[in-house]
Amino acid sequence: MAALNISGLSKHFGTTKAVDSATLEIEAGQFVGVIGRSGAGKSTLLRLINRLIDPTEGSVSFDGVDITKLKGKALRQWRRDCAMIFQQFNLVDRLDVITNVLIGRVAEHSILSSTAMRFSDAERAMAAKALDRLDMVPFALQRAGTLSGGQQQRVAIARALVQNPRIMLADEPIASLDPGNATRVMEALRTINEEDKLTVLVNLHTLDTAREYCGRIIAMRQGQVMFDGPAHELTDAVVRDIYGADGLEDFNEAVTSTSVKGQEPVAA
What we know:
This is Phosphonate ABC transporter ATP-binding protein. It holds the Pfam family ABC_tran. Keywords: ATP-binding, Cell membrane, Membrane, Nucleotide-binding, Translocase, Transport. Belongs to the ABC transporter superfamily. GO terms for molecular function: ATP binding. Mean pLDDT is about 90; it is low at about 255-268. By secondary structure, this protein is α/β, with parallel strands linked by helices. The protein has a six-stranded mixed β-sheet, with helices on both faces. The protein has one domain: 3-Layer(aba) Sandwich (Rossmann fold), CATH 3.40.50. It has nine helices and ten strands.
């Protein structure tokens, strides 16, 4: 089973240290939540892992391969193996749902066939199976732009699944969703983690959600890893030590407004 190793990883934007000397080892099959205030470095960390951006210092390796040194075809293959789910879904609104899912197979095709959206029957069956896992088959021929935010996020997860990834990253996947849809998305990620034995790293802005779904939590502040351990060890007292009393209050306010167990919806 392949482990993800992060060693002395930093990313500087001018004088700002978005990620500052992060060192982590993520064992295969873990469900890891990354929490922190806005600007803590969570999104930058995931983008460094996926190689959407390059580090200033340090390295990322997976299964013994130094990801930070990959180029060309090898880098494209890594981005296929390391699926990324974004807060804003990144679907093509004018295309139907199943075609959006099939876009996850583009890395397996030549430029000509991918541009022409030529996919095999086997790939279409794979896309339908992924949609079925996320209860989205009834919407397969519907334009993606007509779906709710929660439905679009589940389509984005299905698209990630058809990449046959070895690791899955999710950057604030429930930040703009109402509690019901947030629950569906988090439960879908947990099911994928458990059934597929797939390593999942998810950035979250709510403490209770991280505690409920993630076996391990990493807390970041100003680009640094301030806590890394089992969810049950991240008590309110520990959060207060890391972020201060105001920080704990911020997390509690976030939980009140967007907790997956809440009743009042937020803006989609």
